[in-house]
Every structure is written in C-alpha cells, then in structure tokens.
Design brief:
- It is a single chain.
- The chain is mainly beta.
- The protein is 6% helix and 40% strand.
- It contains two helices and 27 strands.
- The strands form seven sheets. Strands 1, 5, 8, 10, 13 and 15 form a six-stranded antiparallel β-sheet that branches. Strands 16-17-18-27-20-23 form a six-stranded antiparallel β-sheet, with no helix packed on it.
C-alpha cells in the first residue's frame, strides 16, 4: 500500500480557506514523511546548527575561517570567526550559551545553509545571538523572498545572550537560510556572535466552538531550546512579515518573550507569553465578531517564576473597551484570571494586551521581565448581565 502511495503522489489543490490549507499541508507533510523521510524537516537544530563541528586547523587563521565551506554543513561569506567559549577579546570574555563553539559575523559577513522543506508550509527559525563590542548591532535574516532586520540594541537577558525567532512561508521545496551582519564597524571583529540555529514547522491554528481566537493558549509557536533558560523573543511585526507566534501579531517597538513550562511558571499548558518591555511590548489578534453581540474575553495574568517581583498591571483591550488587571508578583509563580465583557461594534474586533510598567528581575537588576499572559479565550454571551466583571 505504501509503495503504491509513494508511486502515486496526491494531487492537492491548495484551498483559500485557512482550515483547508491546514488539512492540505498536513496531507503533504504526511506524504513526504512516509515516502521521503530524508526530505522531511524535523523540528530542532539545523545540521551542525550549534557549530560544534568546526574547520580544520589548516582552514583557520587564528579565529578567522579561510574557506567558504570551512564550517561543516555551512557556507560562509566575508569575515567569519570561529569562537571558542572562554576566549577573550581585550577585557571582554566571550561566552557560548550551548556547547563550546559559536561563530562571529564581521562586517557584511553571512552564514548560509540549504534545507529541504515543504512548499507552502510555514516555518520558524530560532537562533541565539549576542552582541560584542558594537552597540548598534543588527542582523538580517532571510529566506528568499522573505527577509527581516532584527535590532540587537536592547539586551533582555543579563548574560548577554538572547534567542530570537523569525518566521517565513516556504516558496519552494528548499530553503536557503541566511543570517547576515549588515553592520560596518571600524573593527571587523566587533560583530555579533551566533549559536544554536533551529527550525520548526508551524501549523495554521483555527478558531473552535470553544474559542473564537486562534492559538489562544500560545501552544503553537517557535522552537524553544531545551537547554536554555531565557525563552525566545518574538520580534515586532515591523521586522517580520510572518509571525513566529501563529495568529498573533506584535505591533510594538519591542519584542515579547515566548516561554515554556520546563523553565518558567506557565498558567495553562506548556507555553505562554511574557510582556517584557512595558507598553512597548504588545500582542494583538483580530477576531471576527457580530455587531451588537456581547462577548467574554477571559485570560490569565501571572508571573513566570523568574524573580520578576513587584506591582504589575496588564491592560486588555477589546475594540474600544479596556480592562486593567493588577497583579502583585513575588517572582515565584502564580496567576489570576480576569474577564472583560464587551459589546462588539464592528465585524472585526482587535484584541490586545500590554503591560503598564517596566520591570527588572530582582536577582540581577539587568534582565527585562514582566507579567505573563496565557489561556486567552473569546466567546459570545447569549444572556449578558454586566458589561465588565
């Protein structure tokens, strides 16, 4: 039966509806996995994605990689260095978050890897990066024809390393993943460090009879490295055409943080979002509503058990209606639930969350943190009593 299926691949016409797109992509993924296991992309590190396999000694001049294919499974361009954890640069100690090695991208330098994917599928890349001596560093991440510039001016973690997510839709059956440093510094060695590059397939979420919002529990999102404790930054959508957090947008100046239950306190399920930069960290989704109908917007507000202490307020918006939810955090986990009732005035209502205050972790006073939002649900109310509870 399998041999027949593989010799007669399914002919699928991609629907314009999100539900049928998800079904069709699922069929394609199943077919590729069964018949071409070598072509199926597995969630996790890219080949040599942590750079633990390095160049031969003859392909190095100090730390500079001399050959364009000197790093196994990668193609490099420009001034690229192979950095060992603990190496020093002047008075600065270079630390690698996972394993023993990372790469540093000098002026106009890039690294590239080609991977097999499923055409039409959405993917998210996750990678760790740290700036060195330059203050205005940024990275250009691209998979043709998509690209995005991720600024690194804001440090969210005190150890200097942050993990970033960036998403795209595959236009072909392969992807050439490029990470490029567009900066021009006087010292070419003042570029960002890169480590641990992973990929994850994203599946378009859908509304259900129990929730008008899609991906309200944030369970669908980018790959989270199992050995890191700082979560993954979801960049603002001004820098990312496709959200790594399906169905949600980040229409703000700063990123939001995607956290997991293995390393943080999460109110519901295995994933949640931490609003780490006050009113500059925003998540939003547009929901289909019926004018004149009353709706319940319910959600959980808490802390991530990451020493983020103090008085916090999450502001929830549903169109023109708002609700401020105070939360006293001891930095040890916990949450409370809140409900915003509103009457829809249009066929599309913007649901939005932000944090009123900036907060720093009490254990280092350097890492940005904030309240956690999770388990967001929107339902119509048949017999409304009060507008807000």
């Amino acid at each position: 039966m399998l041999s027949f299926l593989c010799s007669s691949p399914p002919s699928i016409k991609m629907s314009t509806t999100p539900r049928m797109q998800a079904v069709n992509i699922g069929v394609l993924l199943l077919f590729c996995t069964l018949c071409n296991p070598a072509l199926a992309v597995l969630d996790g590190l890219l080949s040599n994605g942590n750079f633990e396999l390095g160049p031969k000694a003859s392909e190095l001049n100090g730390t500079e990689v001399l050959k364009h294919n000197g790093i196994p499974d990668w193609e490099i361009s420009g001034f690229v260095e192979y950095i060992k954890s603990g190496q020093t640069q002047g008075d600065m100690l270079l630390v690698v978050p996972e394993g023993a090695y990372a790469v540093r991208l000098g002026n106009e330098a890039s690294i590239k890897q080609r991977v097999s994917v499923i055409k039409g599928m959405y993917y998210s890349l996750t990678f760790s990066a740290a700036r060195t001596c330059a203050q205005e560093e940024k990275l250009n991440v691209s998979v043709a024809p998509d690209s995005g510039v991720l600024p690194m001016q804001t440090l969210y973690s005190s150890n200097g390393w942050d993990s970033y997510a960036w998403a795209y839709q595959a236009e072909y059956d392969y992807s050439e993943i490029v990470i490029h440093n567009p900066g021009v510094e006087e010292d070419p060695a003042c570029g960002p460090l890169i480590d641990s590059i992973a990929i994850k397939a994203l599946y378009p979420p859908k509304a259900t009879s129990k929730n008008i919002l899609k991906n309200g529990g944030f369970e669908e999102g980018p790959y989270v490295f199992p050995n890191t404790t700082w979560g993954v930054l979801i960049p603002p959508n001004i820098e990312d055409d496709h959200s790594p957090l399906p169905a949600w947008m980040v229409p703000s100046l700063k990123a939001v943080k995607y956290i997991d239950s293995e390393h943080f306190s999460v109110p519901q399920g295995r994933r949640a979002v931490e609003l780490v930069a006050g009113k500059e960290s925003v998540i939003t989704q547009i929901a289909r509503t019926t004018p004149g109908k009353t709706y319940h917007l319910s959600f959980a507000v808490g802390d991530a058990s990451n020493s983020c202490e103090g008085s916090m307020i999450v502001e929830a918006f549903a169109g023109r209606d708002t609700l401020k939810v105070p939360y006293e955090s001891k930095g040890k986990g916990g949450f409370k639930r809140a409900v915003l009732r509103f009457v829809a005035t249009t066929t599309r209502t913007q649901i939005m969350f932000l944090s009123t205050f900036y907060t720093m972790r009490s254990d280092d006073f350097a890492s940005l943190c904030g309240p956690v939002v999770d388990d967001v649900k929107l339902l119509s109310v048949r017999y409304p009593r009060n507008k807000v509870v």
